[in-house]
């Protein structure tokens, strides 16, 4: 089988990289990797870590690009590749503009589509935006669906997807995580190397979502500062997103605090190990809600809803929302209530055991029968 694997952002690359490597080990499969480079620098970092050299690179990243512009450029670029390669299956991941464009381009060429990390739903088409609608549309275009959890499977069935085309596999992000995190890891970063992770309670903060920009992000940053002031043993590490709106606000509200470290975005390997050495996570990201629990780290979600309710139900994640007082309350409880922290950090991760890639490949072989 010739399989074209398509992705364009750092999160997609992290989750698809272990699958690419696993597919390459299969003698009966020919793997063609195409990246759109919807993200450029952050994508390249992951490709380097996992030693993946794409056969095709559309290099679509442009400053100030709109969703319509990148969708149209991706659709046209992917179409030409599909016509040239004529793959038996196109694998897309998750919920990005690349995902939607790739699934649609393959559909136009009548090529089967496999959707990795299928079935996530927040129930709000504008949160996360545009990801919620991207993944819903990708589900309608896909031929086979690789869902991480039973809840994801149920979501797809409720939307009329044929259950015989759905496979519960766990999430490939756990496969990726297990391949790079080690207790002996030593940071090459001057700030991260100096932190005493045993004596300090290190909070890793990530915040960048479109829907959080403006007042919600002011609330988040103000809450973080209040938490640090109230807990002398806490240090915060914030790899600041490249978005100028996020960077400007972080500089204004957080840069002058000695225990809040604003650093440049990290490559995947040091970031994964930073999570492993941290005490807890504050994030509006989706993927970290899956990664951190696998390492026993509680997550406070800085959003009003999540498309990953399994983590909330399992007790590894709590939704704080975007109001300052709620964020402060939930974070302080984890910092100051040892039994609550132990309960969350010891909860079972609902996203699998690191064998998702193996299960996906077994499912792909069934398509040939």
Rg, nearest Å: 20 Å
Q: Averaged pLDDT, please?
A: 95
- Share of β-strand residues: 15-25%
The percentage helix is 40-55%
Structural class determined from secondary elements: alpha/beta
H and E order: EHEHEHEHEHEHEHHEHEHEHEHEHEHHH
Strand order of the largest sheet: 3-2-1-4-5-6-7
Model description:
The longest helix is centred in the first third of the chain and has 19 residues, at 67-85. β12 (299-301), α13 (309-314) and β13 (317-319) form a beta-alpha-beta unit. The protein is 47% helix and 16% strand. It has helices at residues 10-24, 41-50, 67-85, 97-108, 131-141, 150-158, 172-180, 190-194, 215-230, 244-254, 268-277, 288-294, 309-314, 324-336, 338-345, 356-366, and strands at residues 2-7, 30-35, 56-57, 89-93, 113-118, 144-147, 166-168, 201-206, 234-239, 260-263, 280-283, 299-301, 317-319. The protein is an alpha/beta fold and 369 residues long. α1 (10-24) packs across α16, α3 (67-85) packs across α4 and α9 (215-230) runs parallel beside α14 (324-336). The chain is globular, with a radius of gyration of 20 Å.
Task: Set down the secondary structure blueprint.
Layout: E1 2-7, H1 10-24, E2 30-35, H2 41-50, E3 56-57, H3 67-85, E4 89-93, H4 97-108, E5 113-118, H5 131-141, E6 144-147, H6 150-158, E7 166-168, H7 172-180, H8 190-194, E8 201-206, H9 215-230, E9 234-239, H10 244-254, E10 260-263, H11 268-277, E11 280-283, H12 288-294, E12 299-301, H13 309-314, E13 317-319, H14 324-336, H15 338-345, H16 356-366
Parallel strand pairs: 1-2, 1-4, 2-3, 4-5, 5-6, 6-7, 8-9, 8-11, 9-10, 11-12, 12-13
Helix pairs in contact: 1-2, 1-7, 1-16, 3-4, 4-5, 9-10, 9-14
């Amino acid at each position: 089988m010739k399989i074209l694997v398509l992705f364009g952002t750092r999160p997609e690359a992290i989750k698809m990289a272990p699958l690419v490597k696993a597919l390459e080990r299969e003698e009966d499969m020919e793997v063609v990797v195409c990246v759109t480079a919807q993200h450029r620098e952050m994508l390249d970092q992951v490709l380097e870590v996992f030693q993946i050299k794409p056969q095709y690179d559309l290099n679509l990243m442009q400053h100030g690009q709109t969703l319509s512009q990148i969708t149209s450029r991706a659709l046209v670029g992917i179409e030409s590749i599909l016509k040239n390669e004529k793959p038996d299956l196109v694998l897309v991941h998750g919920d990005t503009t690349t995902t939607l464009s790739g699934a649609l381009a393959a559909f136009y060429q009548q090529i089967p589509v496999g959707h990795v990390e299928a079935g996530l739903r927040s129930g709000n088409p504008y949160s996360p935006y545009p990801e919620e609608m991207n993944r819903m549309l990708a589900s309608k275009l896909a031929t086979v669906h690789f869902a991480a959890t039973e809840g994801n499977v149920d979501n797809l069935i409720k939307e009329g997807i044929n259950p015989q085309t759905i496979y519960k596999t766990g999430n490939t992000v756990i496969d990726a995580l297990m391949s790079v995190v080690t207790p002996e890891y030593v940071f090459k970063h001057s700030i991260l190397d100096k932190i005493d992770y045993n004596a300090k309670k290190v909070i890793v903060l990530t915040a960048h979502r479109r829907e959080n920009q403006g007042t919600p992000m002011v609330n988040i940053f103000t809450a973080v500062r209040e938490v640090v002031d109230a807990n002398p043993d806490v240090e915060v590490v914030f790899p600041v997103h490249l978005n100028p709106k996020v960077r400007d606000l972080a500089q204004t509200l957080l840069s002058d605090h000695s225990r809040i470290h604003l650093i440049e975005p990290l490559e995947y390997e040091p970031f994964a190990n930073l999570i492993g050495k941290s005490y807890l996570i504050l994030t509006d990201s989706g993927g970290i809600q899956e990664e951190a629990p696998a390492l026993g780290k509680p997550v406070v979600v800085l959003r009003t809803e999540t498309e990953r309710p399994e983590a909330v139900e399992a007790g590894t994640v709590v939704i704080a929302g975007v109001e300052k007082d709620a964020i402060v309350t939930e974070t302080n409880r984890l910092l100051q209530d040892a039994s609550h922290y132990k309960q969350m950090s010891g909860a079972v991760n609902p996203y699998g055991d690191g064998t998702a890639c193996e299960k996906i490949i077994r499912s792909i072989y069934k398509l040939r029968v």
